[in-house]
Every structure is written in C-alpha cells, then in structure tokens.
Amino acid sequence: MTWKETLIQFTKKWEGGFSNHPNDNGGATMAGVTMATFQRYRAEMGLPAPTVNDLKNITNAEWQAIFDRYYWNAVKASQVSNQRNACVLVCWVWGSGVSGGVKSFQKFAGITQDGVVGSQTINALNNADFWALCNHRENFFYSIVNNNPSQKVFLNGWLNRLNDFRRTFGVGLTQPEPEKKKS
C-alpha cells in the first residue's frame, strides 16, 4: 500500500459519518468533507449546488476527487520525496485548510509563511523530523483551544487521532518520549 493509500484509509477511519456539531467551524461534514468544500467541488464540476442530504450521500468517487484535488494535489504531496511527512501535511490541511495548515508548517520550518507549497516548502518537508512535526501539530491543537475555548470539546478527539497517526505513520522510526501538555 502506498503512503497516499494509507492516508486515505486512515482519514476515512477517523472521519466516520455525518456530523454537524454546533461548535465545529466546518459545519455540516460527511466523512471529513465540509459542506463548503462540497459546494466548491460541485460548482467547479458544473453540478447543481448540493443539499445536506447530498452531502450525507457523497459518493466514494466524489470523496476521492475532493481529497486529491483540494488536499493531496494542493500541497503537491506527490512531489515530496519524504512521503511520511507529506502525509503529515495533507492530514493537517484536511483539518485546518490548505493555507492555514501550510503556513503553520512553514512557521515550524522557519521559512517564509506564505501558505504556498513551492520548492522551499517541499525541501523543508523532505528534511523535517517526523516526530517534531507531529509535536508541532499537537501544540497547534492546544493553541486552537487556547484561542477559542469552545473548541475544547474536540481536543481529545484531535489528540487521539494524532496519536494514532503517530503509530500508523511512525512505524520504523524511533520515537522520543512525548512532552506532556496541558490545555
């Protein structure tokens, strides 16, 4: 199985079914695809605007096209030789949007924070330490909650998912002892 296939399987496992939690900034979501993203996709494909029921019944082909078009391809993941780290970034932007997720990685890497994946960002991804990158993502989750306490309801889920990500994608790497965080 390729890194991308593993990430797709991982994402579908964690995203589950339909959700419309009042505190979720993404609003109505099915298998991790927000209504806004689904609307954008349908508009770009020349299809009718979707309803919530359409979102609940998103096809595997639509889900895959959205994953590829707006996440995998948007961060040029296929151009990153360190596919483990490419998966970290794709997972990050899946949950935080492309520009915000890329800027956060760029801040971590100490490079220009423009939200665009170019040669500098790809080089930084190829050379980043996987564990440090995951730890940065964890700190990002805590900063979300610190800046918006209504998001605390999601924190344990985010951390559980990240820890599963570390187990799934960190296979074969020596893992340092994680730092203990407090919200």
Defining traits:
183 residues; Chitosanase, subunit A, domain 1; mainly alpha; 3-stranded antiparallel β-sheet; 3 strands
Structure description:
This protein is mostly helical and 183 residues long. It has a single domain (3-169), classed as Chitosanase, subunit A, domain 1. It is built from nine helices and three strands, in the order H-E-E-E-H-H-H-H-H-H-H-H. The protein has a three-stranded antiparallel sheet. A hairpin with a 2-residue loop joins strand 2 (29-30) and strand 3. Helix 1 (3-15) runs parallel beside helix 5, helix 5 packs parallel to helix 8 (130-147) and helix 8 runs antiparallel to helix 9. The longest helix is centred in the C-terminal third of the chain and has 18 residues, at 130-147. The model has no long low-confidence stretch (mean pLDDT 92).
The CATH class label is: Mainly Alpha
Sketch the major β-sheet.
3 strands, antiparallel
Count of domains: 1
> CATH superfamily membership, which one?
Chitosanase, subunit A, domain 1
| Cα-to-Cα separation, first versus last residue | 36 Å
Instruction: Indicate the structural class.
Output: mainly alpha
List the helices and strands and how they pair.
Blueprint: H1 3-15, E1 18-19, E2 29-30, E3 33-34, H2 35-44, H3 52-56, H4 60-72, H5 83-96, H6 98-109, H7 119-127, H8 130-147, H9 152-169
Antiparallel strand pairs: 1-2, 2-3
Helix pairs in contact: 1-5, 5-6, 5-8, 8-9
